[in-house]
Design goal:
The complex is a heterotetramer of chains A (383), B (107), C (190) and D (138).
Chain A: H1 7-15, H2 27-61, H3 77-87, H4 98-114, H5 133-141, H6 144-154, H7 158-189, H8 194-199, E1 203-206, E2 209-213, H9 222-238, H10 263-288, H11 308-334, H12 342-370, H13 376-380
Antiparallel strand pairs in A: 1-2
Helix pairs in contact in A: 1-2, 2-3, 2-10, 2-11, 3-10, 4-6, 4-10, 6-7, 7-9, 7-12, 9-10, 9-12, 10-11
Chain C: H1 8-13, H2 16-43, H3 47-67, H4 71-96, H5 108-139, H6 145-150, H7 153-162, H8 166-187
Chain D: H1 2-29, H2 60-82, H3 85-91, H4 94-117, H5 126-129
Helix pairs in contact in D: 2-4, 3-4
Classes of the chains: A mainly alpha (383), B mainly alpha (107), C mainly alpha (190), D mainly alpha (138).
Chain lengths: 383, 107, 190, 138
């Protein structure tokens, strides 16, 4: 394979190799630092800033101004919110099961933040490019469902229990269409390694020369165009976003599974949820929208030689631009669509998405068989 | 032998597998709750999986053991689904999930 | 896929020992977690807690799989057991039982006979045989153990499923379909 | 492989530390206040909570979970086969892999159609029939 499975740590080590003190730092410390950087400088700040952006987007859509008091155009609002959450009283309801009540946020946060390990932020900035990358991502995010269920059970509140049960049933149901929408990408790429999947959505190499261009998986064939939507919709449902926010439907269940969680504990739930939105958007980006690939360019093989740090920055910006666009669509939908009813929710998953997802898998396999694995782009360009 | 080195040895894997199996057997024998019995069976199946994976690496250096573990995982899931459906049926019949109450065939 | 600096840099620094020991420590902790959680599964009077600790036991086993070179299986273990079986059991408990009424505690007398059977007869024999077996197998380790453990297993498992294990694989597919139909039939409300 | 997984373990460990860290930071910052007893009650829109919240619930969640777990394991098992498809297409041996995937998806579809036609996927239909003796619906 020739790839570093811990590309981020290797990159940090390479960039600091010439420096006097840092140069001798062993790899495992760099691995630790990469994890620290991604979680504390990407995941958690994203969770905070997303709340501000969500309110701004909502305000724009509803023709309001939105938060504008703290800092320029309200930019520091998320900081004020964080301080408020930290300063709030921390209490456990009287009837609650303390062990479950404390365990639940841990499972949710680990499920959401742990998945950042395999996100391909840039070619050189993958925390851990595991051979089973997608499987790791799916496996780690499954921790969220038991977390929600146990938290709602442990808080000894009927609203919470209803919300948690709905949430768990919804998450497990939509996991099937999501997995079936990952399958076409695996058929096309022949690997579960996310780094390699992203790599294949650009120029295809043959020996030393660039052979032909293989566009984003989304445009590989007509079926993957549907698949990406199913993955996106499934992601929406798994992260409990409108129109699938039944677990916390505020008009019927007070606040659903997190009713009894207040102050920082509620903040952690919200944080985990926003991180999960990021992870799902990043998954859509990496699998179908080309990840860090800059369309039609290969930064490492151009008429000028770019320094590796600059390439990493460009890749990272590209990845973030695509991911944040998907996140923006998620926020946009919130003010566009009404909430589904619980029977519609299940019917939509099992009778709507599932047959289409099956059809997409078979269709992609047939397309590859008939056209020898070529994408539409390659066929059009006559390669 | 250093305990850290021991942890990576075949012996450690087998000992953990055996202990898991014994605990599972104990749960199956002692639990009166049918769901508790199911949990014990899951432990036993996991113990089998550990042994397959360990021998796949330390004995054969071939993939076959892992394929069998995959089969074990698949069957375990099917078994859990059917077992819990049976428990639910039993519960509807008897309003309890106590295994001692499952005595219709006795008299 | 290499970033543009030589691989030798990190070899020259020589961080092997600490990293290796750290990983062995993770494995040891996973083994301890597996066994301690399993103990709670067996002994805890509250079945809900037993299920939660079963979840931790599954996670420990998944980490053990990773260190035995079974990366794909570790993922499958977490997806199927943690995401599937645990949720199903939790649903079953919440559906059938009034918790904290504690009607179904394992009584001392009920637990005594199994304890004697397991600790007195089965346990010593099995442990003894296990130690004997592991010694004899460890004496002649296979040649390519290290390389095998480092391989990516997903494709290998796929090849095995299409090769030697094609028929069992198909049989299991049919079995799963049967299990689906049977379980749904059993669980269906009258 | 191993450097990759050790990094992944770092991520998981740090993610697990986030929760105690945040709650700990809060414990240092916030003012200490105790004794407001009513606040500790379960929130039921201002009313006093009646009975325990640990009630039995509707069985439909359970049937869905059973269908889910079978589908989940089947899809898990198809992934290793699916990774071979690209190379099989390149080598001209796609038939076997395609047949395998088709068979799997086909059998899953049969299961789905069975559940569908027998009404196990209906949410509303079950309400009247599956009412538990005590408990809540939803």
């Amino acid at each position: 394979m020739g790839s570093h499975s811990a590309a981020f740590a290797h990159s940090l080590q390479g960039w600091t190799a010439g420096l006097p003190i840092l140069g001798a730092t062993p790899l495992w410390i760099w691995a630790f630092l990469s994890a620290l950087l991604v979680i504390f400088l990407l995941a958690l700040p994203f969770g905070g800033i997303a709340t501000y952006v969500e309110r701004k987007v909502a305000a724009d859509i509803q023709d309001r101004i939105g938060p504008n008091r703290v800092g320029p155009i309200g930019l520091l609002q998320f900081f004020a919110d964080a301080v408020k959450m930290l300063a709030k009283e921390d209490f456990i309801p009287r009837g609650a099961d303390k062990f479950l009540y404390n365990l639940a946020p841990v499972l949710v946060v680990v499920g959401a933040c742990g998945a950042f390990a395999v996100l391909p932020l840039a070619k050189a900035l993958v925390g851990a490019d595991l051979n089973i990358g997608i499987f790791y991502l799916v496996a780690v995010t499954t921790l969220i469902a038991p977390g929600m269920l146990l938290g709602s059970w442990g808080s000894q509140n009927k609203w919470s229990l209803l919300g948690g049960l709905r949430g768990a049933a919804q998450i497990v149901s939509y996991e099937i269409p999501v997995a079936l929408s990952i399958l076409p990408v695996v058929l096309i790429s022949g690997t579960l390694q996310i780094g390699s999947i992203v790599e294949q959505q650009g120029w295809v190499w043959q020996g030393e020369m660039m052979k032909n261009y293989h566009f984003w998986n989304m445009f590989h064939n007509p079926f993957t165009m549907f698949s990406v939507f199913i993955l996106f919709v499934g992601g929406l449902a798994e992260t409990n976003r409108i129109p699938f926010d039944l677990p916390e439907a505020e008009s019927e269940l007070v606040s659903g599974f997190n009713t009894e969680f207040s102050g920082m504990r509620f903040g952690l739930y919200a944080l985990g949820e926003f991180c999960d939105v990021f992870v799902m958007s990043a998954m859509v980006t990496a699998l179908y929208l080309g990840g860090w690939q800059v369309p039609f360019l290969n930064l490492e093989n151009m008429w000028v030689t770019l320094p590796s740090g600059l390439i990493a920055i460009i890749h990272f910006s590209m990845f973030m631009a695509k991911t944040l666009f998907v996140v923006f669509i998620v926020m946009w939908l919130r003010w566009t669509l009404p909430r589904l009813r619980v029977d519609q929710l299940m019917g939509f998953c099992w009778k709507g998405l599932m047959p289409i997802a099956f059809f997409n898998v078979i269709g992609t396999a047939l397309w590859m068989w008939i056209f020898h694995g070529k994408s539409m782009m390659q066929l059009v360009m006559g390669q | 032998m250093n305990i850290l080195d021991w942890a990576t040895s075949l012996q450690a894997y087998l000992v953990v597998g055996t202990c898991l199996f014994l605990l599972g057997v104990f749960a199956v024998l002692s639990r009166r709750n049918t769901i508790g019995i199911l949990l014990g069976i899951e432990l036993i199946l996991n113990a089998a999986g550990i042994n397959f994976v360990a021998f796949s690496k330390f004995r054969a250096a071939a993939i076959d053991g892992q394929v069998f573990t995959l089969f074990v995982i698949l069957i375990a899931a099917a078994e859990a689904a059917v077992a819990l459906a049976v428990i639910l049926r039993f519960y509807r019949l008897k309003e309890t999930i106590n295994a001692d109450e499952a005595n219709i065939l006795r008299n | 896929m290499d970033v543009d600096f030589p691989r030798e840099i990190h070899d020259a620094i020589g961080d092997g020992a600490i990293m290796e020991n750290g990983m062995k420590l993770v494995l040891l902790l996973a083994q301890v977690m597996t066994l301690v959680s399993a103990l709670v599964v067996v002994l805890h009077p509250n079945i809900l807690y037993a299920t939660i600790f079963l979840l931790f036991s599954f996670l420990g086993v998944a980490v053990m799989f990773v260190f035995a070179g079974a990366d794909f299986l570790a993922g499958a273990q977490v997806i199927v057991y943690v995401g599937g079986v645990t949720i199903l059991v939790l649903f079953a408990i919440m559906l059938t039982q009034w918790l904290y009424e504690a009607k179904l505690k394992t009584t001392l007398m009920k637990g005594l006979i199994p304890f004697i059977v397991v600790m007195g007869a089965l346990g010593p024999i099995l442990i003894k045989e296990t130690l004997k077996l592991s010694d004899s197998v460890s004496a002649t380790p296979p040649e390519k153990m290290g390389e095998f453990a480092a391989l990516a297993k997903t494709q290998l498992i796929g090849q095995a499923l299409l090769g030697n294990y094609l028929l069992p694989f198909e049989a299991i597919t049919i079995l799963l379909l049967g299990a689906l139909v049977g379980a749904v039939w059993l669980a269906r409300p009258e | 492989m191993e450097t990759g997984f050790i990094t992944a373990f770092w991520y998981l460990a740090i993610a697990a530390l986030v929760v105690p860290l945040m709650l700990g930071a809060g414990a240092i910052l916030r003012p200490k206040r105790t004794g407001e007893n009513k606040k500790l009650d379960a929130y039921e829109c201002g009313e006093d909570a009646v009975g325990t919240a640990w009630v039995k619930f509707n069985i439909r969640f359970y049937v869905i979970a059973i269908i889910f777990i079978i589908f989940d394991v089947e899809i898990t098992a198809i992934f290793p086969v699916a990774t071979l498809y690209k190379d099989a297409v390149a080598n001209g041996t796609a038939g076997l892999v395609f047949g395998e995937i088709f068979l799997f998806i086909g059998l899953l579809l049969v299961g789905l159609v069975y559940c569908w036609t027998r009404g196990d996927l209906e949410w509303v239909k079950g309400i009247a029939q599956t009412k538990p003796k005590r408990g809540i619906h939803g």
